[in-house]
Hints:
- With 254 residues, the chain is of the alpha+beta class.
- Helix content is 44%, strand content 26%.
- The chain has helices spanning 67-99, 109-126, 140-147, 149-166, 190-206, 230-246; strands spanning 2-10, 28-29, 35-44, 47-48, 50-51, 53-63, 130-137, 172-177, 180-186, 217-223, 252-253.
- Helix 4 (149-166) packs across helix 5.
- The model is unreliable at 1-64 (pLDDT under 50).
Amino acid sequence: MDHTIIETMGIRSGKGMFVRDHNGRNCRHSSVPARPVVTWFRAPWTLIRRLVGAARGETIGQAGNSVADARLYETLEEQVEERTNKLKIALVELERLASTDKLTGIYNRRKLDEVAKHEVERAKRNRQSLSLLILDIDFFKKVNDTWGHPVGDEILSEVSRVVQASIRSTDILARWGGEEFVILAPETSLPDARAIGERIRAAIKAHRFPTVEHLTASLGVAEYKPGDTLGSLIKRADDALYQAKRAGRDGVRG
């Protein structure tokens, strides 16, 4: 008689369980054994942003020495592998959607918080420089009031493309909210971050945008200091942005 035991190993609980049939008995097969067969498969258990567990199935028993049996096991393994691959692809897509700003396609605030905290810890641990820039589109409310939110959305997407083209591959761009963007610049001193900010400012001013044609932006810059948290670093960059606004906009401060 075959004995089938499904051992469920949930990462959260760390407990196993037996799966029984509808009569409450351990699952069994009635085929007459010819030789022992051991079949293993692994499949995702729960998909909530990541796989938090795995189901491990183990069939230990006897099976006929027929070609049909071999084909059956092979087919089952192929089906499990196919479904596992589909779940992995779905997981990647879910993570992308959770990390991306729907309008601009760049990182959203949630993902920026995650990445920035990691970079702050890395700068602290390795005693490396790290700078952060906050960008605000000047008079953006006027764009929405004059041409409507669809045009405003188009401008936000275009600004994100201009900024992305103006920064380095190691810099991280995210939409902070509304018309504000954040650029995280690892291993970058304050003077170098100011230069990045000036390059972004000039690129936006020179760009011809749809409908509104010309825009300007203000930027605030801050460099990581020992004892900084992500919150204190952002606060200093935001204060510098406020100074740029008070100085007449279309400028970089910090």
